[in-house]
Design brief:
Length: 123
């Protein structure tokens, strides 16, 4: 009886771990809105980035408006290694970051410690 119980708990644990690591977690994806030949999108920084994935149109100048609402210093910088951008995000202040959209591709961004991530998809 006890053996069966331990077996069931073990199987449940394995199932949970598999789901946690390999399950498809929903990722918020948003497309920047284009107006007058520029595209813009607001990114809310609070316990991570929202949206976490941004689709940009290639060749259209893009501005990402980051606003940090999270009090933790973890998110007080945002880094786009592919674009050489490392910007401070003062709390409650909107920071506009210009992105060069001339090359299509997928580009990661992260907090200053590389703990929280987001992705730009230029196409
Ligand atoms: Cu961090």
């Amino acid at each position: 009886m006890l053996r069966i119980l331990v077996l069931i708990i073990g199987l449940l644990l394995i199932g949970f771990i598999t789901w946690w690591f390999f399950g498809k977690h929903a990722i918020a994806t948003e497309t920047a809105s284009v107006a007058d030949d520029i595209q813009q999108i607001d990114v809310n920084v609070n316990g991570g980035y929202s949206p976490e994935r941004i689709v940009l149109k290639r060749g259209v100048p893009a501005t990402l408006n980051f606003t940090r609402r999270d009090p933790s210093s973890c998110l007080d910088r945002v880094v786009f290694p592919d674009f050489g951008i490392n910007r401070e995000l003062p709390k409650g202040e909107q920071q506009s970051i210009q992105i060069d959209t001339s090359k299509a591709g997928e580009y990661q961004w992260a907090c200053g410690m590389d703990m929280f991530h987001g992705k730009l998809i230029i196409k």
